[in-house]
Amino acid sequence: QVQLVESGGGLVQSGGSLRLSCAASGEILTFSTMGWYRQAPGKQRELVAAVSDGGNTKYADTVKGRFTISRDNAKNTVYLQMNSLNPEDTAVYYCHARATIVVVTSDGEKDEYWGQGTQVTVSS
User: What DSSP string runs through the chain?
Assistant: First the structure.
């Protein structure tokens, strides 16, 4: 089965940087879109950044210019370089991927996958 394994979260001071990684393991799939969402306490989950298989990127206005998303298609891995972090960036960050094919599992059919989430905490 496909799993998205995240790493790179942690605690950092305001103004610092973190680099998140998310690698897909299990069945070999091609993902049309890979990206990152985040959810802060008391807020809805929001899209942070996404990148298509063609290399097109999209960023939330709040992170544009500070965050950079990239992917390695051969490794099915997506990265999020986060610079100039501030306390408002504190949230659980979730990796997300959408496959180009539907995978049939014992629980049904799916083409969308989520990571377990990794905590990013930015102190003042």
Answer: --EEEEE--EEEETT--EEEEEEEESS---EEEEEEEEE-TTS--EEEEEEETT--EEE-TTTBTTEEEEEETTTTEEEEEE-S--GGG-EEEEEEEEEEEEEEETTEEEEEEE---EEEEEE-
Instruction: Measure the CA–CA gap between 22 and 36, rounded to whole angstroms.
Output: 9
Q: If we measure between CA atoms, which residue out of 80, 84, 71 comes closest to residue 37?
A: 80
Task: Give CA–CA dist 19/76, Å, rounded.
Answer: 16
User: Is the distance from CB of 116 to CB of 107 less than 8 angstroms?
Assistant: no
pLDDT at 104 over 90: no
In the prediction, which pLDDT does 83 show?
Answer: 98
Which residue is it, tokens 């950044």? Answer: 49
At position 82, the amino acid (one-letter code) is: M
Rounded to whole angstroms, the Cα distance separating 28 from 13 reads 37
